[in-house]
Amino acid sequence: MPASRLAGESLTAGYEGRRVLDGVDFRVEEGRVTVLLGPNGSGKSTLLKTLARTLTPERGRVLLDGREIHRYRTREVAHRLGILPQSPAAPEGMTVRELVGMGRFPHQRLWRQWSTEDERAVQEAMAIARVDDFANRPVDALSGGQRQRCWIAMVLAQETDLILLDEPTTYLDLKVQVDLLELLVRLAHEGGRTLLVVLHDLNLAAAYADVLVMMRDGRIEHHGSPEAVFTAAHLKAVFDLDAEVMRAPSTGRPICVPSLGAAAMPGPRQEVPA
Ligand SMILES: Nc1ncnc2c1ncn2[C@@H]1O[C@H](COP(=O)(O)OP(=O)(O)OP(=O)(O)O)[C@@H](O)[C@H]1O
Ligand SMILES: [Mg+2]
């Protein structure tokens, strides 16, 4: 089994008066893309926040490179692990370049301000996420998809080995989603980075994940290869989704076609007045 740089052991976590995770054991495999799937409210973001130390577990522990994460200084964690939270908000008026530059915070020291290394990392991240065309515009004046790409650039500029992304494809058009997932796979397979990504698009998840994880009601129900995890029975049990699962002709990966209701069935259509 590949090594794990990040692992949760018996994690029980939640919010004031609400327990979400209950004794979750979870390992993120090094150099792989792990995709986390689950219905709304199943605890995906809560798990990511707990693994990234944004949320302190009630019980259990998180191990980062074999050491309990709460023993690290904030800057040390930020050197090793970058997280893109779900729906982040940029300070009003902040430009794209400034936001992406925030990813360099862990690399700066009081006596060493902005360096050519920081500049290179920001330029590279902006080019990869394709936000360099609007680098000087305020983030809050961009479209939803452009804004999402700025946040991705910020996490990339941090240049961490471990990257946790909570729904990074929200607001992105399909072509940009595919480009992003291709990039994430390259970062893992060619760059040796470790990625944990929450997605809602089942077919893209099955197409790009090395490891697929399905959560339901704060528990991990299935964890393994897409072939083993992405089955009609699991989709029904986890999402209450009736779907046919088949193989994509070009890749051999599983894909699902949801069973649709009567309104989608062939038949005489109502005439729509011109
Ligand atoms: N800040 C919070 N305070 C209280 N309860 C919360 C908070 N954030 C989430 N919850 C609750 O915790 C449960 C799990 O939420 P979580 O955000 O982890 O789900 P999720 O799987 O990420 O869902 P989604 O797909 O909608 O993003 C939900 O019942 C949610 O209402
Ligand atoms: Mg979430």
From TrEMBL:
Chain ranges of the ABC transporter domain: 6-242
One Pfam family, short name: ABC_tran
Example GO biological process: iron ion transport
SUPFAM superfamilies on file: P-loop containing nucleoside triphosphate hydrolases
Domain of life of the native organism: Bacteria
Compartments (UniProt record): Cell membrane
InterPro entries documented for this protein: AAA+_ATPase, ABC_transporter-like_ATP-bd, P-loop_NTPase, Siderophore_ABC-ATPase
An annotated GO cellular component: plasma membrane
Chain segments annotated as coiled-coil in the UniProt record: none
Record keyword Cell membrane present: yes
UniProt-listed PROSITE patterns: ABC_TRANSPORTER_2 (PS50893)
Membrane topology: Peripheral membrane protein
Family note: Belongs to the ABC transporter superfamily.
Protein name as catalogued: ABC transporter ATP-binding protein
The species this protein was found in: Bisbaumannia pacifica
